[in-house]
């Protein structure tokens, strides 16, 4: 059974072209390698 | 193997899986894997570029641009994303067109979420015509059709989504629902059942050969003629009226939407006109009040200023000036409670002491030949005390000198008739010529 209203709420607006640069600036690019480096650094400091 | 290497391997593994799924056209599944790959290694350029391509393929141009710009930033040299960006931006107006479509989709979503389904459907139909790979728009359109119980159209939209993104979960879920509503699910189940239900032939089963009948040349021509006639009949009586009805319906729907919009705009315009009239009236009132406050010599502001000048005269112990200022004061304009208290004290003092000063000023003016000013002082005196026969007599004398005999005679008459001062009454009689 499809709940129309509930399904409609699940739709989110698409990212507009004007907002691309802002999205890039706000992107969190931290990856697993960064986290590992951080952990290793902390271990070394101790 | 160190940890960093393991991380690289994990990223590669997710990238490979993503690539595999992308080749199978499972775009949403591929996107998930590629995002994972980038979580392990953000510098995995191929993964990021492929993710951008997948977004672009699904109609999400902005998301694709984000990935490709980040990709070029992380690896400026020898990066394929450079070419993709160039391609998207090279054709004049292409990016603007994509931007407009995204904006229209967002508007349609707002319409749909606010209950203007018809408007949303119209807009989404135009969007998918211009951008047939816009998955989100197809999905929203399908959902709206489902909402209107138009399952055939919903099915068509969902079919297009599944052609672009084979395992799109939302599309699959909607499609399952649509099939259950149109009865296609049962047909598919039966087909599946028949495919696996193979009955072996028994000895007494009889196979009937298909009948074969050879048509002659004339019969073929007649059959073709009948076919053509039937075709024409179908077109004339079934397809064309249905098409007309559909066009009329579409036209009426559009007209209704425009009429609704026009009504709304008219209502809005009426509201604005009324608001403007009300504001204009309020402005007029405010201007009148302002004029009353600062405009003429009788204005409230001037009266308060006069009151301040009276107080200053009191402070410098110049009672004569205070009396002169008090003559100019319109006490009805003073409404401030604190100032009213001060005013009542001044009034009491004036009632007690102003008549003497006014008489003195009137005599001085008479002596200096300024009859009008003298009369003004006397009139002011009369406001405090109108039972002084000497003052009335003095006023009568001034009027007589001015040649206003009627007024002077009336005042002499008051002195003669209303007071017991015989000496003054005799003088008045003499002046009147008795």
Tell me, briefly, the overall form of chain A.
elongated
The N- and C-terminal alpha carbons of chain A lie at a distance of 57 Å
Coarse structural class of chain B: mainly alpha
Number of strands of chain A: 0
Please trace the helix and strand order of chain A, writing H or E for each element: HHH
Please tally the helical runs of chain A, counting DSSP H or I stretches of 4 or more residues: 3
Instruction: State the fourth-level CATH superfamily of the largest domain in chain B.
Output: Tetratricopeptide repeat domain
Biggest sheet features of chain B: none
Number of domains of chain A: 1
Average pLDDT of chain B: 88
Envelope shape of chain B: elongated
Output the helix-strand order of chain B.
HHHHHHHHHHHHHHHHHHH
Number of helical stretches of at least 4 residues of chain B: 19
Instruction: Give the proportion of residues in helices of chain A.
Output: 55-70%
Tell me the structural class of chain A.
Answer: mainly alpha
Number of strands of chain B: 0
Tell me the Rg of chain A in angstroms: 20 Å
Low-pLDDT residue spans of chain A: none
């Amino acid at each position: 059974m499809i709940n129309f209203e509930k399904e409609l709420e699940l739709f989110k607006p698409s990212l507009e072209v004007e907002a691309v640069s802002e999205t890039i600036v706000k992107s969190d690019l931290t990856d697993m390698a960064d986290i590992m480096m951080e952990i290793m650094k902390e271990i070394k400091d101790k | 193997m160190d940890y960093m290497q393991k991380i690289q391997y994990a990223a590669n593994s997710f990238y490979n899986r993503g690539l595999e799924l992308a080749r199978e056209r499972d775009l949403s599944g591929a996107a998930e894997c590629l995002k994972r790959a980038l979580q392990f290694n953000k510098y995995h350029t191929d993964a990021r570029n492929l993710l951008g391509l997948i977004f672009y393929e699904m109609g999400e141009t902005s998301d694709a641009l984000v990935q490709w710009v980040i990709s070029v930033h992380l690896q400026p040299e020898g990066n394929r994303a450079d070419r993709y960006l160039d391609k998207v931006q090279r054709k004049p107006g292409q990016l603007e067109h994509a931007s407009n479509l995204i904006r229209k989709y967002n508007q349609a979503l707002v319409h749909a979420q606010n209950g203007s389904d018809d408007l949303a459907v119209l807009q989404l139909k135009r969007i998918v015509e211009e951008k047939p790979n816009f998955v989100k728009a197809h999905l929203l359109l399908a959902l709206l059709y489902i909402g209107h119980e138009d399952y055939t159209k919903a099915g068509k939209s969902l079919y297009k989504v599944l052609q672009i993104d084979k395992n799109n979960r939302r599309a699959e879920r909607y499609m399952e629902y649509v099939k259950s509503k149109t009865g296609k699910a049962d047909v598919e189940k039966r087909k599946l059942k028949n495919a696996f239900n193979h009955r072996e032939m028994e000895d007494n089963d009889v196979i009937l050969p298909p009948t074969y009948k050879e048509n002659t040349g004339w019969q073929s021509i007649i059959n073709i003629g009948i076919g053509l006639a039937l075709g024409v009949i179908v077109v004339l009586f079934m397809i064309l009226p249905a098409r007309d009805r559909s066009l009329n319906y579409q036209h009426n729907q559009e007209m209704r939407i425009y009429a609704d919009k026009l009504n709304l705009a008219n209502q809005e315009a009426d509201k604005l006109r009324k608001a403007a009239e009300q504001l204009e009236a309020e402005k007029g009132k405010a201007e009148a009040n302002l004029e009353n406050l600062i405009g003429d010599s009788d204005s409230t502001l001037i009266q308060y200023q006069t009151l301040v000048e009276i107080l200053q005269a009191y402070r410098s112990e110049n009672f004569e000036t205070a009396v002169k200022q008090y003559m100019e004061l319109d006490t009805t304009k003073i409404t401030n409670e604190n100032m009213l208290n001060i005013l009542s004290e001044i009034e009491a003092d004036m009632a007690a002491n102003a008549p003497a000063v006014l008489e003195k000023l009137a005599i001085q003016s008479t002596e200096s030949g300024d009859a009008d000013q003298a009369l003004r002082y006397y009139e002011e005196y009369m406001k405090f005390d109108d039972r002084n026969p000497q003052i009335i007599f003095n006023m009568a004398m001034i009027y007589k000198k001015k040649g206003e005999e009627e007024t002077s005679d009336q005042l002499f008459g008051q002195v003669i008739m209303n007071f017991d001062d015989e000496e003054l009454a005799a003088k008045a009689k003499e002046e009147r010529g008795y």
